[in-house]
Amino acid sequence: MENCGKMSHGSDSQFEYIQEVSMKKIGAIVLGMMLFLSLTVCAGAEATKQTQIDTNEPDAAWNLPETIEMTKEVTAVFEKAMDGLTGVGYEPLGYLGEKDGVYCVLCRATVVYPNAKPYYALVYVSDEGLKNIWDIWMGAHAEKK
């Protein structure tokens, strides 16, 4: 009974070996995670830096109209791009600008079902068709009065 709960000398060295290997594995994992995080942060900073450089170039600017009134050209491009789109109705409220042949149009959008609440959306269109739609959820303000 005296030896109950005590390890023999052989077990002590095996335990120390297992503990040493475990510590090495944990250390390697921690170092690997630190390397991964540092590379991720550096890549994110470089991407942000590149984005900032791109937006400062002269050709990155939007051509803004004198008024937000929909012109015949923008209306024609908008209607052609939206032709066949189902599920949501987009009512153009104003032309906000153009960049590289892409027009930005502020719209009141309404999902096509009874009692649907309208919201605003920025719709990007070109001669090639619909480019992108960014929903702006301000439903109370988008409702017609």
Describe the model.
By secondary structure, the chain is an alpha+beta fold. The chain folds into two domains: 9-58; 72-142. Helices cover 43% and strands 26% of the residues. It has helices at 9-56, 72-82, 139-142, and strands spanning 88-99, 102-111, 119-126, 129-136. It has a four-stranded antiparallel β-sheet. It starts with 8 loop residues before the first helix and ends with a helix.
Quick take:
With 145 residues, this protein is of the alpha+beta class. It is built from three helices and four strands; from the N terminus they run ααββββα.
The helix/strand order is: HHEEEEH
Q: Residue-averaged pLDDT, rounded?
A: 75
Strand content: 25-35%
Name the helicity range. Answer: 40-55%
Put simply, the count of helices is 3
Largest sheet: 4 strands, antiparallel
Number of domains: 2
**Which overall shape is indicated by the principal axes computed on the Cα atoms?**
elongated
Integer-rounded radius of gyration: 31 Å
Strand order of the largest sheet: 1-2-3-4
Number of β-strand runs: 4
Counting helices, strands and paired strands, the structural category is alpha+beta
